[in-house]
Amino acid sequence: MKEDSKIIDNFKRKIKYLKKQNKSYYEFDKPLISDAEYDKIKNEIIDLEKQYPYLKKIATIEKIIGTPPSNKFKKIKHLYPMLSLSNAFNEDDMISFIKKVKNFLNFSEQNIELICEPKIDGISATLVYEKGNLVKGLSRGDGKIGEDILENLKTVKEIPLKIKGEDLPHLLEVRCEIFIGKKDFNELKDKFANPRNAAGGSLRQKNSEETAKIPLKYFAYGYGAVKPMMFKSQIFFLEKLKKWGFKTNPISKIVKNLTEIENQHKKIDQLRSSLDYDIDGLVYKVNDINLQKRLGNTSNSPRWAIAYKFSSEKATTTIKDITIQVGRTGAITPVARVEPVTVGGVVVSNATLHNEDEIIRKDIRVGDTILIQRAGDVIPQVISADLSKRKKDSQKFKFPKKCLCGSETIKEISKSTKKEDAVRRCLKGYECNYTAKEKLKHVVSKEALNVDGLGKKVIDQFWNLKFIKQPSDIFNLNYDKIKTLEGWGELSITNLQKAINKSRNISFDKFIFSIGIRHIGQENAKIIASYFKTIKELKNFMKSNSRAKILKELLELDGIGETQINSIDNFFSNVTNTQITINLIKELNIFEFKTISKKGVFLNKKIMFTGGFRNMSRSEAKSIAESKGGKVLGSISKKLDYLVVGELKPTKKKVDKAKDMKIRIISEQEWNKILNS
Q: Which residues does the annotation mark as catalytic?
């Protein structure tokens, strides 16, 4: 589809940029951008997934938020993952969020009570209490594994080291945000770039005595693992925390409808300059914790919460030049090179123009005075050109019809919409040096092989030196040649070797994602991996004469559509792609894909739904089936074990077909009994 290509191309750049920020901040304590800007980038990626369902097929945000813990501190697994938040930038986004919550819960008219809390521009941490005693303190890390920073957290004076109460849970995991007040930071600004830098750098000191010198503060805002669970609502949880001696934000508030949401948002936006701490938006959470449990999480974030960001900053500058970039899918993207300008505390020299159609629509030209904004985009967006300042001899930009490699580019026609794509694309794949290099960067990314030390610049360097031309070359590097390069000492080479050897062991779904099939993201990769189960079966598919039959079976799976099937077919029909994939397989230890659940009433059963349910949405039913070991299909076939029929307008043809094929039919009443048994 036209929008697909545009968003996917932007998506890739955003992810690459965010990884760079992660490395700089988390590994070197040197943030290149503010926390607000980081969150804008992060949440723009997730927001695009929300607005455009097909982007969930290339969902990578779960893996790129945060960074693997450094070797500075002991690594500890979080009791419950610290997920990132989806985000909203305007009223329409909040309308969409509320609608999705209601649809999932199968609520119609009744309002969903939300609690609104300020989103502190600080550092996330987790405090773990056992029988009232603080026993662990972790950084966020990559959301699953954090760093042991307990001793540093103990220096934050207001954090209770011991809590008491008759109703105290045996295990309590408290999420909090560590920050430095604006007034305190004024005395430290010669040492740190910004308040978040000061907080982050302090928490990652090896010597806690040095951390103690920094006036850190905190607000507790959430929970992880709780045993036994005793909280009925988020507001009740916050009240309990306050009773137990925790510091909670005083301007948290319950809101019950969109009007109250917008009023509160405007109120706090006007108020934030007077606060002694930085906030970049408000977090809205479903207040009822039972509803939170029902809503659950996507692979990236909780369905029951969203960060509503404050308005983005804008600036005026001029375009010096318009250049072309080539992405890993061959997408040709124009970028405006602008006179450096500060936007939101960050010096900007590039701004995206998205595609050829966008340049034509906005009539953007070299030499134009333009308005740009940073609204969470990787590269700031060009909003418009000031025509009153345009020179008389200015010329319209002529978008090149050829790739940088010299090959002709095309605008594909969507098979479903029959419309022309907005993005020009080079279809040479690995035969195009520019595309091939970007494909390599995808292969080594955290979401794929996760080769630490092979970042963008290193790939560029090794590519230019012809050390790497295809993924399998990564595992056959000539380290003697690398030793001769500036900046590559014994330690860095040893670390690279370790990282590469570690990446040889990879799960089947990650491998599928790593080979870079267009339109196949992490969620699709899991579906495909669950179908083939082993790399042996995938290899058989690659050389099989019955590919059409297998693709038809894949199409039956819920979550796989025509777009994905066409991409898979095109990818493996290309001899170069097939050979490169085989070469990579030879270098890896690919282990069998693990199903979502190893137990449950629907373990290894294939399920399909038809009709609406009275007490839950189709989405919730699907989520429950998968959590109980089932696999949800999108069509009826002989492989189907159960057809679950909702009471509200089931499809008669599907029911009749299931009866003819002697597939077990489960009524909504039976479904509820199974869930409650």
A: 119
Do residues 512 and 520 make contact, with C-beta atoms less than 8 angstroms apart?
yes
* CA distance readout (Å), 221 to 34, 163, 242: 21, 17, 11
Cβ density class 562-589: b for 16+ within 10 Å, e for less: ebbeebbbebbebeebeebbeebbebbe
| Token pair of 15 as six digits | 């992810």
Tell whether domain 606-676 is in CATH 3.40.50.10190: yes
Q: How far apart are CA 210 and CA 152, in angstroms?
A: 9
* Dihedral, CA of residue 141, residue 204, residue 125 and residue 278, to nearest 10: -110
- The H or E element containing residue 459 is helix 456-464
Tell me which DSSP letter residue 331 carries. B
Whole-number average pLDDT of the chain? 85
Give dist(CA 259, CA 634) in Å, integer. 38
**Beta bridge mates, 384:** 371
Give CA–CA dist 527/605, Å, rounded. Answer: 14
Confidence of residue 375 (pLDDT cuts 50, 70, 90): low
C-alpha–C-alpha distance, residues 284 and 258, integer Å: 11
Single-letter residue type at 367:
G
Q: How many CB atoms lie within 10 A of CB 464?
A: 10
- CATH number (2.40.50.140, 3.30.56.10, 2.60.290.11, 2.40.30.10) of 1-58+312-427 reads 2.40.50.140
* Residue that the structure tokens 């598919």 belong to: 541
Q: Are 381 and 358 in contact (CB under 8 A)?
A: no
CA nearest 627: which of 295, 305, 300, 223?
A: 295
**Is the domain 507-591 a CATH 1.10.150.20 member?**
yes
* Dihedral pair phi/psi, residue 372, rounded to 5°: -120, 160
* Residue 177 and residue 218 in contact, taking contact as beta carbons nearer than 8 Å: yes
Residue 64 has pLDDT above 60, yes or no: no
Does pLDDT of 68 surpass 50? Answer: no
Quick one: pLDDT at residue 62? 45
Q: Which one, of 524, 626, 455, lies nearest residue 8 by Cα?
A: 524
pLDDT value at position 621?
83
Looking at the domain 65-309, which fold is it? D-amino Acid Aminotransferase; Chain A, domain 1 (3.30.470)
Residue 93 neighbours by CB distance under 10 Å: 18
Does pTM surpass 0.90? no
Q: Pairing relation of β-strands 606-610 and 642-645?
A: parallel
Distance separating alpha carbons of residues 75 and 68, to the nearest angstrom: 9
